[in-house]
């Protein structure tokens, strides 16, 4: 299961949690004495024990659902510290502390809870920022996820069929309103050679990562799809020649500076993309794609790694 795989990434954190629990039990046994059952308060035991258990479950769920990193560490550290404070509060119902220990023991409980809540709050704040980035990326895919059967299985972008459908819809709307519309066709240079040298698995991973890289550098209204093989397409509603050229230039630059790391030995592979751009002149979607394809073929023959606007 995926959750168990993630938990294996956090073995040290799990061992730390177990060590904290053992240390607290040893401390209470060594310093205090067990209260008679008549002095136990069932309501407090249920409430404080239940709270302690729930915090422990939260901590496990965090580790089972997130990769290692600063946010995960802060969330877990905050919950573990709160767990320690709650556990001590729970043991108060079972163990009587000597008067010499009781004062600073109560102070320690409060400080542990406060420190845990502060740490957890910092982690939640960073998690909030992380989620905003994820939501922004998902919003760029929203139209694709409405039709799950139109998603390319390798890149998780829209496939060629979805691209053509959306191109017809968007182009018709832009032509009807007089808004500009542009298409970019993006081709990864020397991709077949990379596949032969490193294998199709690495090639698929490169397709995914370059797709993600481009997705993060498009406008919110733009739509990125996998067109065919190592070729992507970008639909750009409201774009004129200047905007299309600016985005095409930015995409060639970011891919040129992208350092792809191979799985086998972690070596760096750099690659480039060639882009053919076409701005609508009121023609059909097929004609617009044909002009973008011609521009792409010209740039691949003359100067790969650059972009060219169709006449």
Task: Please explain how this structure is put together.
By secondary structure, the chain is of the alpha+beta class. The chain has two domains: 139 residues; 167 residues, Alpha-Beta Plaits (2-Layer Sandwich), CATH 3.30.70.270. It contains eleven helices and nine strands. The chain has a five-stranded mixed β-sheet, with helices on both faces. Strand 6 and strand 7 form a beta hairpin. The longest helix has 42 residues. The protein is elongated and about 90 Å long.
Overall geometry comes to elongated
- The overall pLDDT, averaged over residues, is 87
| Category from helices, strands and their pairing | alpha+beta
Within CATH, the superfamily of the largest domain carries the name Reverse transcriptase/Diguanylate cyclase domain
In helices, the fraction of residues equals 55-70%
Oligomer state equals single chain
How many separate helices? 11
Specify the CATH architecture of the largest domain. Answer: 2-Layer Sandwich
Assigned CATH class of the largest domain = Alpha Beta
Short description:
By secondary structure, the chain is α+β, with helices and mostly antiparallel strands.
How do the strands and helices of this protein lay out in sequence?
Elements: H1 2-8, H2 11-31, E1 33-34, H3 42-65, H4 70-91, E2 95-96, H5 99-140, H6 142-145, H7 160-177, E3 181-188, H8 191-198, H9 200-215, E4 223-228, E5 231-237, H10 241-256, E6 259-261, E7 268-270, E8 273-279, H11 285-302, E9 307-309
Parallel strand pairs: 8-9
Antiparallel strand pairs: 1-2, 3-5, 3-8, 4-5, 6-7
Helix pairs in contact: 1-3, 2-4, 3-4, 4-5, 8-9
């Amino acid at each position: 299961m995926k959750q168990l795989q993630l938990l294996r990434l956090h073995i040290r954190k799990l061992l730390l949690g177990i060590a904290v629990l053992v240390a607290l039990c040893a401390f209470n046994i060594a310093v205090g004495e067990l209260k008679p059952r008549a002095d136990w308060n069932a309501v407090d035991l249920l409430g404080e024990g239940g709270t302690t258990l729930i915090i422990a479950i939260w901590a496990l769920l965090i580790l089972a659902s997130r990769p290692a990193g600063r946010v995960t560490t802060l969330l877990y550290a905050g919950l573990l510290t709160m767990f320690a404070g709650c556990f001590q509060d729970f043991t108060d119902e079972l163990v009587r502390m000597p008067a010499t220990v009781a004062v600073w023991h109560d102070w320690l409980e409060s400080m542990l809870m406060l420190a845990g809540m502060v740490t957890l709050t910092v982690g939640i704040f960073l998690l909030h920022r992380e989620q905003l980035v994820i939501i922004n990326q998902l919003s760029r895919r929203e139209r694709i996820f409405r039709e799950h059967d139109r998603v390319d299985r390798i890149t998780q972008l829209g496939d060629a069929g979805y691209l053509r459908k959306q191109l017809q819809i968007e182009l018709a709307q832009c032509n009807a309103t007089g808004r500009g519309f542009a298409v970019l066709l993006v081709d990864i240079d020397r991709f077949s050679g990379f596949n032969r040298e490193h294998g199709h698995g690495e090639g698929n991973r490169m397709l995914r990562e370059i797709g993600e890289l481009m997705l993060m550098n498009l406008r919110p209204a733009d739509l990125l799809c996998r067109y065919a093989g190592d070729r992507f397409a970008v639909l750009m509603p409201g774009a004129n020649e200047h905007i299309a050229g600016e985005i095409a230039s930015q995409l060639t630059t970011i891919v040129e500076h992208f350092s792809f790391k191979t799985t086998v030995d972690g070596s760096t592979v750099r690659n480039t993309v060639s882009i053919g751009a076409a701005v609508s002149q009121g023609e059909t979607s097929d004609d617009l794609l044909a002009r973008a394809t011609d521009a792409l073929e010209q740039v691949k023959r003359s100067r790969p790694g650059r972009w060219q606007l169709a006449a």
